[in-house]
Amino acid sequence: MPRAIAPDQLAEVLPPGGLTLVSGCSADSTVLLDAVEAAGEALGAMTFSGIFVGGLNRRTWRAGLDSRVLSFFLTPELRAERERVEFLPLCYEDLIAELRRRRPAAMLLMCAPPDASGMCSFGTEVGVLADFWREVPVRIAHINPLMPRTAGDSGIPYDALTAVIDHAQPLAAMESGRDDPVADAIAGHIAPLVPNGATLQTGLGKVPDAAMRALTGHRDLRAHTGLLGEGLLDLVHSPAMADGPSAVVGVAIGDEAFYGRLDHPRLDFRPASVTHDPDVLRAIPDFITINSALEVDLFGQVYSELTPKGLMSGPGGASDYARGARGHGVRIIALPASAARGAVSRIVPAGTPAGPVSLGRMDVDVIVTEHGAADLRGLGHDARAQALIAIAAPDHRDSLADGWDAFARRL
């Protein structure tokens, strides 16, 4: 049986140093964060690692002066502490391999109370933790009665835990914006690209949510994705989805009402080794991936990580899904055509973006804005550029065309 502890006893059960995996995303535990900060120097040169989402996970696992964070995504708060953060911009396949290579020594997780068979559901964040708990010798759990049990992965046995802290805490919440005319227009161009019976992958945000809601008239749809947001959950509750456990997901992020809707027979929560596994993805027929971006250049290269304020993310799972869908699906990138109230085009000249390429031109099939869909499959450089200029914001098309003419003379 695990030892029941108070938060101020954490250092008695968590050995100092080493790599400690932590819950993130919607399972961010203020109880464990407070306990880590209170333990301070007693935890030594410990490194904390998890999946951290900007706008959701605002605290930085700071113990003592020697504590560090290993992250595969950058939040504004982590970026402000770069001196103690090791940032690795890896796709999920490589992320899992890197964590396994480093051999975590401990795990701090949030989970639901044990069921009648003694199993504690990982709830809204199955993700990476479910892949690693068997390999990690020290497992300390925040048992949260407000964490919903989710179907699919069996969870972790209560008896396999080293120590537990019982405490009720509302889940970390992120509201989804509705009634966005631009997102709705983009979604209207995506819907015809999705056949009945397709399997969907998507992320979080206004555009992915609108795209999912635009598919409620479809039938026999399935999902296989790392993230479950409000739009996809609405689709799960609609007649559009196939019966049975047709939505394979890893992590759920939404608001309080959203978390109350996760008890549904179509939801099947699975670890990252399933949601992002390359062999699994390659075996999915009619796989439609729908992801967003900050910019797309006239070659069709996608930029999703760097803003004027600095890096805001890593590559995440988009490249895993792009590789998985190649040759037997449609890989869609959806974004508004402009930013800053139309002053800045998000379709940009070739050679001008400042950030790393998140998806290469061979990793994308269709780019969609509110002005239409540019199908880049089978096109050469000039035809690609013309197709992308045609879906740019009208006020920017002439300058994009002039810039491309000058650039194309170098090719």
Would you mind describing this structure in some detail?
The protein contains 14 helices and 25 strands. An eight-stranded parallel beta sheet has the order 1-10-8-6-2-3-4-5, with no helix packed on it. The model has no long low-confidence stretch (mean pLDDT 95). The chain has 411 residues and is α/β, with parallel strands linked by helices.
Summarize the structure.
The chain is α/β, with parallel strands linked by helices. It contains 14 helices and 25 strands. 25% of the residues lie in helices and 22% in strands.
Please supply descriptive tags for the structure shown above.
alpha/beta; 411 residues; eight-stranded mixed β-sheet; 25% helix; 25 strands; eight-stranded parallel β-sheet; 14 helices
Q: Could you outline the blueprint of secondary structure elements for this entry?
A:
Elements: E1 3-4, H1 10-13, E2 19-22, H2 30-39, E3 47-50, E4 68-71, H3 76-79, E5 85-87, H4 92-102, E6 106-111, E7 119-120, H5 129-132, E8 138-143, E9 156-157, E10 163-166, H6 181-190, E11 199-202, H7 206-213, E12 222-228, H8 230-236, E13 247-252, H9 256-259, E14 267-269, H10 272-275, H11 278-282, E15 287-292, E16 295-297, E17 302-303, E18 306-307, E19 310-311, H12 318-325, E20 329-334, E21 338-339, E22 344-345, E23 347-348, E24 366-369, E25 372-375, H13 381-390, H14 394-408
Parallel strand pairs: 1-10, 2-3, 2-6, 3-4, 4-5, 6-8, 8-10, 11-12, 11-15, 12-13, 13-14, 15-20, 16-23, 20-24
Antiparallel strand pairs: 7-9, 16-17, 18-19, 21-22, 24-25
